[in-house]
């Protein structure tokens, strides 16, 4: 089998893609097994069948390695293809998210990183910006497309809509560990779309219901 082509980092050494991929796989396996706090560059390198130098040629620290690789995976699963309808876009987004959260490795890594964030403000801030911020920007495209199609009002609360897209799914799959089958994903999609498209209740209506 032909080896993967080598590539050179800007101003740095030639990096073999096969080694980079092996380190990435090892990082997720090790992170799921021991958690961020006990994770070491040495253990990742050993699991990957590489030397520590190979890791440090790619990332300057454990934190940089984890943030970079987790961000790549987390933001890829937020890609939302344009299906032509709000419901179709939401279903695609939720389906990808449910699959990612239910993955044997990610189902252990995500809660661990959230817990680490509560102890380590620097990690929390970086994850919020690079993972959370990027995912929300990608998801926002779903709502802006729906506005352009006339499916939802132009003054739709985008930030609240993004909370609807992420919150219920994470609660069900990430916290309760309850897998989403096709039927439940369809039902969740309908509820999320209805919530996003719902007109806000005026102060007068709130008072009349009190």
UniProtKB/TrEMBL annotation:
Keywords of this entry: DNA-binding, Transcription, Transcription regulation
Pfam family, any one: TetR_N
Cited InterPro entries: DNA-bd_HTH_TetR-type_CS (IPR023772), Homeodomain-like_sf (IPR009057), HTH-type_TetR-like_transc_reg (IPR050109), HTH_TetR (IPR001647), Tet_transcr_reg_TetR-rel_C_sf (IPR036271), TetR_C (IPR011075)
Ranges in a coiled coil: none
Source taxon at top rank: Bacteria
Residue ranges the UniProt entry marks as DNA-binding: 40-59
GO MF terms held by the record: DNA-binding transcription factor activity; transcription cis-regulatory region binding
Sequence ranges assigned to domain HTH tetR-type in this UniProt record: 17-77
Name of this chain's protein: TetR family transcriptional regulator
């Amino acid at each position: 089998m032909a080896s993967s082509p080598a590539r050179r980092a800007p101003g740095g050494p030639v990096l073999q893609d096969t080694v980079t991929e092996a380190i990435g796989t090892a990082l997720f396996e090790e992170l799921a097994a021991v958690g961020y706090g006990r994770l070491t560059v040495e253990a990742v390198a050993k699991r990957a069948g590489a030397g520590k130098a190979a890791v440090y040629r790619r990332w300057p620290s454990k934190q940089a390695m984890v943030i970079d690789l987790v961000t790549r995976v987390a933001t890829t699963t937020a890609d939302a293809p344009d299906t032509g309808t709000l419901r179709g876009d939401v279903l695609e987004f939720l389906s990808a998210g449910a699959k990612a959260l239910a993955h044997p490795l990610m189902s252990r890594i995500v809660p661990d990183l959230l817990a680490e964030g509560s102890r380590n403000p620097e990690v929390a801030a970086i994850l919020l910006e690079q993972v959370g911020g990027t995912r929300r920007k990608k998801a926002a495209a779903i709502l802006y497309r729906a506005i352009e199609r006339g499916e939802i009002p132009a003054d739709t609360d985008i930030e609240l809509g993004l909370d609807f897209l992420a919150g219920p799914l994470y609660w069900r799959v990430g916290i309760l560990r309850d897998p989403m089958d096709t039927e439940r994903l369809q039902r969740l999609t309908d509820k999320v779309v209805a919530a996003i498209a719902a007109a806000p209740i005026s102060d007068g209506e709130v008072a009349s219901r009190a």
